[in-house]
Structures are given as structure tokens and as C-alpha cells.
Amino acid sequence: MKARIVTLPGDGVGPEVTAAAVAVLDAVAAHYDHTFDYEQHLIGGCAIDATGEPLPADALAACKSADAVLLGAVGGPKWSDPSAPVRPEQGLLALRAALGVYANLRPLQVHPALTALSPLKDDKLRNVDVLFVRELTGGAYFGAKTRTVDTATDECKYTVVEVERVVRRAFELARGRRHKVTSVDKANVLETSRLWRSTVQRIAADYPDVKLEHQLVDSMAMLLLTQPASYDVVVTENLFGDILTDEAAALAGSLGLLPSASLGEGARGLYEPIHGSAPDIAGKGVANPVGAILSAAMLLRHSLGLEEEAGAVEAAVEHVLEHGPRSRDIGGDAGTAAIREAVVAALDEHVANSEAFFSGARACG
Ligand SMILES: NC(=O)C1=CN([C@@H]2O[C@H](COP(=O)(O)OP(=O)(O)OC[C@H]3O[C@@H](n4cnc5c(N)ncnc54)[C@H](O)[C@@H]3O)[C@@H](O)[C@H]2O)C=CC1
Ligand SMILES: CC(C)CC(=O)C(=O)O
Ligand SMILES: [Mg+2]
């Protein structure tokens, strides 16, 4: 197949991990005879420096006409002055809104070889397989903001339509998994959460085969650390989902491991690791590219419909996590480039083994 992918490496470690993900996509293209055409654009701090805008018009136009968008991360201390008129994160928020990618899928699995890095003991980590579905284009990140000398406000607003579409997505996804949805809110205090909860209750009636439970976000933050294996699909609003998924990353062993897919109504999606620009390690060549590489796998699956290829990338990552090399955040000393090369080599081997398996099966059959 032929696909057009816009890359937005962004700031900090963004370019380092995006380059690794592109190298893996290139290996997929070579093995499976696909053509991926890339178009790279600016977003975030680097875009502000070059154009004054965190999301230049040409970058947005390219994303809107692409088959998929692969993003690194935005932001960093250089652009963090609270009085700055524009900030890198505004570019990312504007992109998510413009693409209409309201459902942010953030899968959490704990690789058996990495359990020692988790704050939990092995028995609590067995069978942890959670899919967070975070609402991505509403809530406090998008509400009106005000600021005077001594007061600031961030409006948190949700409409029924915004809640309904992401909750339906969560229920649909649960049907392909273990048929359970946990909806997280703060309905004991927040009006937006009361609207969220009543909408979830109404939608649930259309999915009698899916078990629904509600959980308040504060206790959910605790339960995630005490009984993570009891969750299947967790659906929640933008801010809560942002925070809970960084917490979840600690269970996996590092923020550098978790991928995400942001989806709307069509096939086009936005794919990015869940971490930020990691200014403390940027430019050193030590960032863990696994979250970005697994985001590329999600791109293959969700935007290009290439399930076998996505599975091959995931298998290659699994192999590298098990046998090494490992990056510093997960207890190794390998750099970003070494991990990238190891994943590409594991992918080569995976494809070669699959071909041998199928030709063997043909010979036998
Ligand atoms: N999607 C995005 O573009 C996001 C951007 N940000 C921005 O990133 C900047 C830094 O934010 P922080 O709060 O420090 O969060 P962060 O996610 O950038 O880093 C938190 C910690 O995790 C580590 N880490 C993150 N990614 C890693 C990787 N791939 N490999 C190894 N270690 C990794 C970092 O070194 C740091 O110690 C801020 O400007 C923030 O606004 C934050 C979150 C998401
Ligand atoms: C706007 C982003 C910086 C928010 C974030 O942390 C994320 O999406 O993970
Ligand atoms: Mg975040």
C-alpha cells in the first residue's frame, strides 16, 4: 500500500524518538512492500522559533490531508516563561482539535521482563492489560482562560455530544476485549462529571454485554496502584486521563514505554508517545524510543489497517525488551540509536521466521 505520513518531531527528545519510529516504519515498508511517503513539519517550540506560531498553517494543512500523523513531543524550558504570548503546547492542543481526534487510546501492559522496575510486586502485575480511553478535545485544556494580577480561571466544559462519542468508543473497544468499562469521574463534586456519569449510564444501556463501573478519580489513582489487573477499558475526561496514564506508566517501568493513538471519526489519526519532551535528557541520545515505536505500530493498525505489520513491530519490541539492549530509564545503558537498530533487527528476524513458517506450512500442506 501507499500512504502519506506527516511527521512532527517537535522539541526535546521528540526528534530523537520520532527518527527511531520512522526507521522502524521504513523497515516495515521494505519487508511488506509498502510505500510510506513522509512529509516533516514544525510544531511546538521549534515552530515558534522559526515562524512565531506553535502550529504553522502549512503544518496543519499537511496533517489534514495526510493518512496519518506521527508526533514526537512539544515544549521545554526555553518556551516556559509564564508571560510568553504563545506556548508550544498550544500547537499540540490546536492540532488535536483541528483533526477532531477526540479519543486518545493509551494501552498499558507490563512486560514480564520489566516487573522489577515497577513499584508493585509481580503478583499484582500479572495480567495487567488496561486500555485507557482519554477524552482529548474537551475539558479544562480547551475551556476559556482568564487571568488578572491575583486571579486565574480555566473553564472546564463538556457537552453531552463530546462525552457520548468518546464513551461509545470505549464501549465498542471493550467488546473486542474483556467486556468491562470503568468510567472515571469526580461526580461527587463536579457538574461536568455529573453530566459525564449520566451520559455514561445512558450509553451503557446500549451495551448490555459490557459490565460498567464508575470510579471517582481520587480513589482511582490509588486503585491503579493496588489492583491494576482488575481494569479492562478505563474511560475518562481529558485532565484525569492525562494524569492517570502517566501514573500508569510507572507500573510499566518507564514513561518512555507507553504509546498512544488519537482517533476521530475517520481513519486518519495522530500518534505520539505519552511522554513529553524530556528536557533533562534531550540531545543526549539516551531517550527510550519504545513509546514512539509502539505508537508507529498503532498507526499501522488504526490508520492504515495493517494489522500483521503492527503485530510484527510489537513482537520486535517485545523481543528487545526481553533480551535487550535496554535504555537507561529501564535499567540499561543503550542509547536511542542502539534500541532502534535492535528493534529493526528483531523485526527482520520476525519477518524471516514468519516466512519460513509459512513456506514450511505450504510444503507440509
Ligand atoms: N505530548 C507532548 O508533547 C507533551 C509535552 N509535555 C511537555 O514536555 C516538557 C517536559 O515535561 P515533563 O513534565 O518533564 O514530562 P516528560 O514526560 O517530558 O518527562 C518526565 C520524566 O520522564 C522522563 N522521560 C520522558 N520520556 C522519556 C523517554 N522517552 N525515555 C526516557 N525517559 C523519558 C524524563 O526524562 C523525565 O525525567 C514540558 O514542556 C511539557 O509541557 C509534557 C507532556 C506531553
Ligand atoms: C497538551 C499536552 C502537553 C498534555 C499532555 O501532557 C498529554 O497530552 O499527555
Ligand atoms: Mg501528559
TrEMBL record:
Residues 4-343 form the Isopropylmalate dehydrogenase-like domain. GO terms for biological process: L-leucine biosynthetic process. The record marks Y141, K186 as: Important for catalysis. Its cofactor is Mn(2+); Mg(2+). NAD(+) binds at residues 76-89, 276-288. One of its GO terms (molecular function) is magnesium ion binding. InterPro entries: IsoCit/isopropylmalate_DH_CS, IsoPropMal-DH-like_dom, Isopropylmalate_DH. It comes from the Bacteria. GO terms for cellular component: cytosol. Mg(2+) binds at D218, D242, D246. It is found in: Cytoplasm. Substrate binds at R96, R106, R134, D218. Binds 1 Mg(2+) or Mn(2+) ion per subunit. It catalyses: (2R,3S)-3-isopropylmalate + NAD(+) = 4-methyl-2-oxopentanoate + CO2 + NADH. The keyword Cell division does not apply. It is an enzyme of class 1 (oxidoreductase). Pathway: Amino-acid biosynthesis; L-leucine biosynthesis; L-leucine from 3-methyl-2-oxobutanoate: step 3/4. Keywords: Amino-acid biosynthesis, Branched-chain amino acid biosynthesis, Cytoplasm, Leucine biosynthesis, Magnesium, Manganese, Metal-binding, NAD, Oxidoreductase. Catalyzes the oxidation of 3-carboxy-2-hydroxy-4-methylpentanoate (3-isopropylmalate) to 3-carboxy-4-methyl-2-oxopentanoate. The product decarboxylates to 4-methyl-2 oxopentanoate. Homodimer. Belongs to the isocitrate and isopropylmalate dehydrogenases family. LeuB type 1 subfamily. This is 3-isopropylmalate dehydrogenase. The lineage of its organism: Bacteria, Pseudomonadati, Pseudomonadota, Gammaproteobacteria, Lysobacterales.
